[in-house]
Amino acid sequence: MAELLDSQSRPLRDLRISLTDVCNFRCTYCMPADYDYKFLSDKQRMNLEEIDRFVRLFTQLGVERVRLTGGEPLLRPDIVNIVAAISSYDLKDIALTTNGQLLAKHAAELKNAGLRRVTVSLDAVGPLVFKKMSGGRGSYRSVLEGIDEAISTGLTPLKVNSVVEKGMNEDQILPLADLAYEKGITVRYIEFMDVGNKNNWHKEDVISSKEILETISSKYDVEPKDPAFYGEVASHYNFKEKDGGIGLISSVTQPFCQSCTRGRLSAEGHLYTCLFATEGMDLLTPMRKGASDDELLELIGGLWQKREDRYSEERFDLKNQKRKKVEMFHIGG
Ligand code: SAM
Ligand code: SF4
Ligand code: SF4
Question: Which residue CA neighbors atom 11 of ligand 1 most closely?
């Protein structure tokens, strides 16, 4: 079969699946605590068999890496069975992004079910800034325990995701690099993004990757590393003569839309072709109405071929200032 390409010649290689829109945190930059959220019902969310079938279909279209995300994916009671089902496919990677709160409890069974590695989100080293950014939920200690347990279980290479927001946690850039150095892991610093419409984003609140790298270089010797694969979102730097390093995700200051190979399936089975999209294509309704594999492949392939998204390159165009965007906890990071 000819390779499926979008209108900018980008293949579909990565699938991010949001397992739930519910979360046990209220991070200021994603799901601010001052809103009353309406969540999907269990019936509206894709079940295990539906997720399994979607993964099978997407692999037929070229997907080689799957990431489970949310909301908080570890809140799904069937998370271990979902991982086990997906791990039967010939994939280069099966990863999960989590806030880490429930990770210590689940790490071993996830590894046994076939999960290869985890990314744990942690924006601060220390309880005070942590609480400020998680909306007062969760415990910093539990996340650290989750990281340690995941490393000892072999869910590696483990990455930590840290969103850096001015006025909130820029004083955590070096302590987070210390954590990477001590544990021999990678901390990826993410520029604060204008996902959704609820996080009160202003471009003045973005600390650029360039500034972050300057701060880290004031203490650590780091050297650039080649991308692991086409379309990798972070630029990586290794510590010299030591395991671990840092990554920089510069969606705002150095957009990487040209090599964006990611599709996103929301918890209710809608396919989004961009993190900043307004709408997705409902694939679950046709699946539940009995669509055949060929009919579903046709829908997915047709949408991908028409894909024109390159929001991060057009972010500051006037037409995008008032755009209604899907929330990140809805489609996953
Ligand atoms: N709940 C899980 C977690 O936090 O890891 C998975 C879902 S979360 C939406 C996925 C990733 O998106 C997290 O690493 C989070 O830090 C990142 N994220 C959420 N909102 C963001 C924003 N406004 N800018 C940059 N990254 C963001
Ligand atoms: Fe929840 Fe993750 Fe969003 Fe934080 S970033 S509110 S942990 S979904
Ligand atoms: Fe991909 Fe959209 Fe992000 Fe560009 S803005 S890199 S197209 S998800």
Answer: 333
